[in-house]
Design a protein that fits this description.
Layout lengths: L7 E10 L7 E12 L5 E8 L2 E3 L13 E4 L8 E9 L7 E9 L6 E3 L19 E7 L2
Antiparallel strand pairs: 1-7, 2-6, 2-8, 2-9, 3-4, 3-5, 3-7
């Protein structure tokens, strides 16, 4: 995934839920494992409800909201884990979609999810495949 200023949906990291009451809350639990191809650059992740970013810091000026922003110091060969738990109040009984989006620091780089940069069969033992998850649970309000 190659991006600069645009957050992009991470394939496979979305889930929909239909709350049974508009007063209920939704607990969203996210774990994303990622790497970057070059040392010193960052990947960032945000949580989105339908099309609205939630659960991150306050966006100010050009600084966007995210729940994780990690700079890779290992040349991208290892993976880092990005995690968040967020108790959302969607105030609806309509189907609601939660998804994870990713941004990469510069368009000349590629960020990877569930694998390290060096993904060849001859890679060192730490070049592993991992999994990422998004889980939602309805909590009675």
């Amino acid at each position: 995934m190659s991006q600069t200023t645009t957050f992009t949906d991470v394939t496979g990291l979305s889930v929909s839920i239909t709350p049974s009451s508009s007063s209920n809350k939704i607990l969203v639990i996210v774990t994303v494992n990622s790497s970057n191809q070059t040392e010193g650059y960052r990947n960032a992740f945000r949580l989105v409800r339908n099309s609205t970013p939630i659960g991150g810091g306050t966006a100010v000026g050009s600084r966007q909201s995210a729940f994780s922003n990690i700079q890779y110091a290992s040349g991208g060969h290892g993976q880092l884990s990005h995690n968040t738990n967020f108790l959302d109040s969607p105030s609806t009984t309509s189907s609601t979609t939660y998804k994870v989006q990713m941004i990469v620091e510069t368009s000349s780089l590629t960020g990877y999810v569930n694998r390290s940069y060096n993904d060849s069969d001859n890679a060192e033992p730490y070049a592993v495949r991992t999994s990422s998850t998004i889980t939602v649970m309805e909590v009675k309000g």
